[in-house]
């Protein structure tokens, strides 16, 4: 008889015994830690063995060194997931190095060159939709068969609050992330009976170099001015950190979220509750 009086999911090492692919495990250079790197460090700390994937070799190797210094275990695979063959190699390499794939964390996202609907150029549209949406779908497509064979798996897709917020100068980015939300729901429904969960996180204003340093440079304002503007929009009165995103990803990837699939979780300091 099963015991319903205690929860069998033990807290110590919330990813102990699990393997995880983190796609986009490097980061844009800057003062603060990026979302993928923080997630890699936290997943390793919680006991997962990792395959770290990025197109930026130096940066993903830096993440792997940080994981190793903290006592974790991570292999590196350099791949541009916008390239079909390189993307297909991710699942193959993961099976070869890790033996199984319990968690797929899709962190890749770009926004450079985006604009309002009227000003956006075709090449920027193509690049952003291709990297943020098509490549994420493609990564899942290659990993899911292995998870189905295992009868289990957890996918965490990094979307953005831009998917549901006013973001008129981020046309392709907003549309790509709205697509990520829809992709996540379809992945969840199509794979629930195979024991695979798929959830997405919509980070709000997070203090990462890609958003703040690169964002300030693109707008021609200082890092401090952009940060002040972002904080003024957030009910909790601060920008998020990559650790806030990483902890949400840890929850969704772990057995703590065993009954959660198809969820789109804002990690935004309350910003999405603020309408009007
Ligand atoms: P980041 O640029 O620091 O990290 C993204 C990583 O993805 C980089 O290492 C980059 O080299 C890698 N990458 C990009 N294109 C790739 C490709 N084609 N193949 C393989 N790797 C590729 O960014 P971040 O600020 O940490 O953001 C990470 C995620 O969080 C993105 O999906 C972003 O859209 C999302 N997000 C961030 C914020 C924020 O405020 N920082 C807000 C909402 C959503």
Strand percent estimate: 5-15%
Low-pLDDT segments, ≥5 res: none
| Termini Cα gap | 53 Å
Question: How many strands, what sense, and barrel or not for the largest sheet?
Answer: 7 strands, parallel
Major beta sheet, strand line-up: 3-2-1-4-5-6-7
Which properties best describe this structure?
7-stranded parallel beta sheet, single chain, binds nicotinamide-adenine-dinucleotide, 276 residues
Task: Please give a structural write-up.
With about 280 residues, the chain is of the alpha/beta class. Helix content is about 45%, strand content about 15%. The chain contains eight helices and seven strands, in the order βαβαβαβαβαβαααβ. A seven-stranded parallel sheet has the order 3-2-1-4-5-6-7, with helices on both faces. Strand 2 (about 50-55), helix 2 and strand 3 form a beta-alpha-beta unit. Helix 1 crosses helix 8 (about 240-255), helix 3 (about 85-100) runs parallel beside helix 4 (about 120-150) and helix 4 (about 120-150) runs parallel beside helix 5 (about 170-190). It starts with 18 loop residues before the first strand and ends in a 9-residue tail after the last strand.
Short note summarizing the structure:
This protein is α/β, with parallel strands linked by helices. It has helices at residues 35-45, 57-69, 84-98, 122-150, 171-191, 213-219, 223-232, 242-253; strands at residues 19-23, 49-54, 73-78, 103-106, 153-158, 196-203, 264-267. It has a seven-stranded parallel β-sheet, with helices on both faces.
